[in-house]
Design brief:
- Helix content is 72%, strand content 0%.
- By secondary structure, the protein is mainly alpha-helical.
- The longest helix has 35 residues.
């Protein structure tokens, strides 16, 4: 005697929850804040694409025919590509060095018990909060005595030290969040401690590596005080210093100045757009775990 299949339950209809006044207020506040922060960036890029006569007007001009003449003028400045090369060299070099050292240091802090561990953590926190601008004179005297003024290697080393504390502190939280049992299981399967770190822990640190790399890149890319004091030769300068000299050289040419500012900000904006989801999650996770 065959039995008929049981009837499928009717699908539940989703009912929309009524909007709460608190949620609406929060969304409106978020939109207002987003507009406040995004509008200056939009105005910088739009001014860079406007003809000179439409930038300084009594009534703002929103509809215009874009022109790249300002960008041509900005990139045509003497030593521009040298500045780009120098900025990329010192920034990428400092970030890579910081990641290599911070991986080892954060692993030791998170996994190993040794005398002076708490003091080391406290020292990392103090170094992270240190205002580097007050050390400019001391850095200049060291560079002068070591005959390393106008040296990109010294600038890279200084940027490396600047971004290292944050990198150690963030990666420490990520390594501490990885269960020790995963390492132990890899070692039981025949991996050495180094192989277990490389094959088990390192792939799980991708969000932390992205967030710290982004932070380090922004810090080194925007740094101004050190290069202003240590690197006086034009062939050893970077883009932040070029940007200030560019505005002085062109005076009231705001179109070219906005084009120069856009070129300076573009790499950071592009990197952040591609990494923002993992980078923001990495910053918050690394700050609270450990």
């Amino acid at each position: 005697m065959s039995t008929s299949p049981a009837p499928k339950p009717a699908p539940r209809l989703r009912t929309r929850r009524p909007l709460r006044p608190g949620a609406v207020a929060k969304n409106l506040a978020a939109l207002v804040l987003a507009a406040v922060f995004v509008f200056p960036v939009y105005w910088m890029f739009s001014s860079a694409l406007k003809p000179s006569g439409q930038i300084l007007t009594k009534d703002p001009v929103f509809a215009f025919t874009p022109t790249f003449r300002n960008f041509t003028k900005a990139t045509g400045v003497e030593f521009f590509w040298t500045y780009v090369q120098n900025s990329l060299l010192v920034t990428v070099g400092a970030v890579l060095l910081a990641l290599l050292v911070a991986l080892a240091a954060s692993f030791a802090i998170a996994r190993m018990k040794f005398k002076g561990r708490k003091g080391l953590v406290l020292g990392v926190m103090m170094a992270q909060m240190a205002p580097w601008e007050v050390m400019v004179i001391a850095m200049y005297m060291i560079a002068r005595d070591a005959e390393m003024l106008n040296s990109l290697a010294l600038l890279t080393a200084i940027y490396f030290v600047m971004v290292l504390p944050f990198t150690i502190w963030t990666l420490r939280g990520f390594i501490a969040a990885v269960p020790v049992t995963l390492e132990e299981a890899a070692q039981i399967d025949g991996c050495t401690r180094g192989q277990a770190f490389r094959k088990v822990i390192l792939p799980l640190l991708a969000p932390g590596l992205m967030s710290t790399s982004l932070f380090g890149f922004i810090t080194a890319w925007n740094e101004f005080a050190m290069v202003l004091i240590l690197n006086k030769e034009k062939t050893a300068q970077t883009l932040p210093l070029w940007l200030t000299q560019f505005q002085t050289a062109f005076g009231n040419d705001w179109g070219a100045t906005m084009a120069a500012s856009s070129l300076f900000a573009a790499p950071v904006l592009v990197i952040f757009v591609f990494l923002q989801r993992k980078a923001v999650g990495g910053m918050t996770s690394g700050a609270v775990k450990g």
